[in-house]
Amino acid sequence: MNRNSETHKHSELHSSTNTRVSTEMYVELLKKTILFEIWHEHELDLFSKGPIVDPNKLIMGEIWPAFAHSMIGRMRMDNLQMCMQSVLQENIEGDFIETGVWRGGSCIFMRGFLKAHGVNDRNVWLADSFQGLPAPNTAKFPQDSGDRLYTIDYLRVSLPEVQRNFQKYNLLDENVKFLKGWFKETLPLAPIDKLAILRLDGDMYESTMDSLTNLYHKLSKGGFIIIDDYALSGCRAAVSDFRSKHNIKEPIIKIDNTGVYWKKTTE
């Protein structure tokens, strides 16, 4: 190999390394911004109505943040990144979706991650009523009896507000798709062929079951399903009932005190 060839090879390697490092730095900064970690000393917990006393609650996503664009915390955000990295490395077909998006932070991270890796042939879907949670239908879903989340204004984030949050990161583009309405109305008709990431954040039995029933069969083999609210009894019961009905045997893996996930290994 002559000197010019060696120099060219070294230059290509150096450029590739710089690109990888730049991508990793952007993705990490995006997480820190969405989670408000850079300014964590100014964050407030609106659930406990005061400053954050235990910083571990930030990491575990166990607060209702005043400013962050996501409440899932560092551990669940890192899990989402790990799942997306695996999907890209293994070339698993399909789009990404979150059912129950709140301020849109997780989906902003999905789109930013894909864009940082030069991926423009996957859509990021946001399914939400954009008016909070539904009142429990206890006649059909007694597992949701006593649930009061539908009364909490804090959990109601409008579609325009979520779109503005995307715009703040310059990430609102043609690959971001919105499904506005109750899951039972929008998910059966969603124009989605395949999914590689299925992230559920609907809190309730009904919302979780609607998401699983209408979307799990679209999840590609090798794709990931993430259950954000597994610690909540209604959500956990829906997951258990669905897995039992469909004989799903993949092990459930714990993320933190709230979330779990598994990798789909069978069609």
From TrEMBL:
GO terms for molecular function: metal ion binding; methyltransferase activity. One of its GO terms (biological process) is antibiotic biosynthetic process. Keywords: Magnesium, Metal-binding, Methyltransferase, S-adenosyl-L-methionine, Transferase. The keyword Transmembrane helix does not apply. Belongs to the methyltransferase TylF/MycF family. This is Macrocin O-methyltransferase. It comes from Bacillus benzoevorans.
